[in-house]
Specification:
The structure is a single chain. The chain is of the alpha/beta class and about 400 residues long. Helices cover about 40% and strands about 25% of the residues. Strands 7, 8, 9, 10, 11, 12, 13, 14 and 15 form a nine-stranded mixed sheet that branches. α6 links the parallel β7 and β8. α2 crosses α10, α5 packs parallel to α6 and α10 crosses α11. The longest helix is centred in the N-terminal third of the chain and has 26 residues. The protein is globular and about 65 Å long. It binds 3,4-dihydroxybenzoic acid.
Length: about 400
């Protein structure tokens, strides 16, 4: 008799526990945020995590009756690790959404998992054009290299007055996009590409490449390197006296990354780049964003990665609201498509057909503003769709 009472008591306890677990499951909305928190791309992880947390602090952690749980995983920017983490997050943690992805190979490695599990996957950083075509469940809130590179090529050939350019890019997806789209557009505009150089993505040594550029004596050097590598390029460019030899440095805004720009020194003054976000973007919304971001992160200045993370969270929150907390993967995805809103970067639109971001691309010049080095916008090309999608 005694034993029986004990059994049913423990059975009750098990039941209570499991229904609590079910309840927690039902009332929790899980976002698996996979980022490079260590290694070469660590600044990307640091910026995006900070931005996602800021978004949650500003907008609450309960949406449509669901408690938002952010699960951050460090993939060290190794694609096999990203893939394994995505699998674990989907299978074990049963996340509702995957997000993050610091580099293109990490996003591409995850695409089949997004498709098989029907998990909406928000790419907040990686920027090779083809990523959104790798899975119908991918939505992007960062940018594409063709957006920035075509805009740069138009400016270089017209107002920039440049006729001969050498390109120098990281030898992987986004670099190859940057090279191709800059080159094709610059040639179309009547310019000449003297040479196209590619440097390894991991641990690059820019010195031998820059020596070649010096010898080729172009009007300008167009550069794409991933976020975090810009300062090294700038340092070696200046050390070799390339600027004094009359070679202008131009590129996508990854090279004058706001995470590093203020430490690059006066040698960076005057560098012109094309990109979708500058911390100096002069809108009321951005001023508030930058201020709040700095306040929450010991003065750290948000860069273009941060804005991709912040807007990515917005896209997820609004999809959850629109589906009233009841939607599965397909319903959430449908509610992400076509979102249009004001971002700290300016107006932004998630194209329902391509699931890619349509946004303004700004021409910016490095200037001293309020005692700090900034990418100061001086021209804008409005509502740029990814030129890579019309191929
Ligand atoms: C990618 C990574 C970056 O750090 C960046 O600035 C642009 C693109 C990428 O791997 O897609």
């Amino acid at each position: 008799m005694k034993k029986r009472v004990f059994l049913s008591a423990s059975a009750l306890a098990v039941m209570a526990l499991s229904s609590a677990a079910v309840l927690a499951q039902d009332n929790t909305f899980k976002i698996g945020l996979i980022l490079p928190m260590t290694g070469q791309q660590a600044s990307t992880g640091r910026q995006i995590e900070a931005a996602a947390k800021l978004y949650m602090a500003q907008n609450g952690d309960t949406v449509a009756g669901k408690k938002i749980q952010l699960i951050v995983k460090d993939d060290t920017s190794i694609p096999d690790v990203t893939k394994r983490m995505a699998q674990e997050l989907v299978v074990n943690d049963k996340v509702n959404v995957l997000a993050g992805f610091g580099i293109t190979p990490s996003a591409l490695a995850t695409a089949p998992i997004a498709t098989q599990s029907k998990t909406p996957t928000v790419v907040m950083a990686a920027a090779t054009s083809s990523i959104t075509q790798a899975s119908p469940y991918i939505v992007r809130t960062s940018f594409t290299l063709p957006q920035a590179s075509v805009s740069m090529a138009d400016w270089a050939a017209s107002k920039g007055g440049m006729k001969k350019v050498v390109t120098l890019v990281s030898d992987y997806g986004p670099g190859i996009d940057a090279e191709k789209f800059f080159k094709d557009r610059f040639i179309f505009n009547g310019g000449t590409i003297v040479e196209s150089l590619r440097v390894p993505m991991r641990n690059p040594d820019f010195a031998p490449f820059l020596q070649k550029v010096r010898d080729a004596k172009p009007d300008a050097l167009f550069v794409f390197v991933p976020s975090g590598a810009g300062a090294a390029v700038m340092k070696q460019f200046l050390e070799r006296g390339m600027d004094k030899a009359g070679i202008k440095l131009i590129g996508t805004g990854d090279i004058t990354d706001d995470d590093q720009l203020n430490d690059m020194g006066d040698g960076a003054l005057g560098v012109v780049t094309a990109h979708h976000y500058a911390a100096a973007h002069p809108s009321a919304m951005n001023k508030k964003f930058v201020e709040a971001f700095k306040k929450a992160n010991k003065g750290m200045r948000p860069n273009f990665m941060a804005v991709g993370g912040y807007d990515g969270m917005r896209v997820i929150y609004e999809a959850l609201k629109a589906t009233k907390g009841q939607g599965g993967g397909d319903a959430l995805l449908a509610a992400m498509k076509g979102q249009t809103f004001e971002s700290p970067r300016g107006p932004m639109f998630i194209d329902a057909q391509t699931r890619d971001v349509v946004q303004n691309i700004y021409l910016r010049k490095v200037e001293r503003q309020g005692g700090e080095l900034h990418n100061v916008e001086f021209d804008v090309i409005k509502d740029v769709k990814d030129p890579g999608k019309s191929k």
